[in-house]
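Q: Give me a backbone?
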Amino acid sequence: MHKTPRQGVGAGRIGRPKSNKTHEIEETYAGYIIRPRGGASLSIVIPQMIAGFLGSIFAMLSLFSLMLPSNVAVTDVLAIKIAAALVMAVLGGLLLWYATRGTAVQVHVDKRMEEVREVITNRTGRNTIIANYGFDAIGGVHLDRSKSCDGQAVLVMRRRNSSVTVPVTAGSEEDLIELRDRMGRDLLLSGTREHRRNDLRMQAQNSTKMPLVA
């Protein structure tokens, strides 16, 4: 997993976050951060609870494995105990890290780097990037009403040339339309610039291939 500074997108914040019932938008120098509001999803909370329980067990077992008596020769005892303790300590550490890494997934739109990042923040404020997508890898942003719950729709990004979607946030259509239009404009402008750069590259390549006229 990649880690980012606590500030998230950009090096600073601009003004106060805009918020509604389901999410808030924090402006930064490089773009903006979309933070969900309300309780965390059970699909995130339950695995983290299980990971925390198993991680604690492995951590205790790693200590107990060094304390257990044995009738084997001293050299063999040390090798077996140290190997078992290391394996269980590593497993326990990974599980505990996963259990404490946070429950709310934020979406960072970085217009300077031209990418969208899914970021999860732990209780100390440290960010971990769980996925990132270049603007050119996103085919569009739209509201998915098939995933709606309690009258809410889900704002999703569609991967280019595929039917795979990435959820951004959920809420009422009135709250999401403005955000959908904003993200769509940012991605469209980036795509336009990319097409222009490609056109310039093609023109430069064609000009070098043209024969010189005497």
Q: What stands out?
A: Residues 3-7 have pLDDT under 50 and may be disordered.
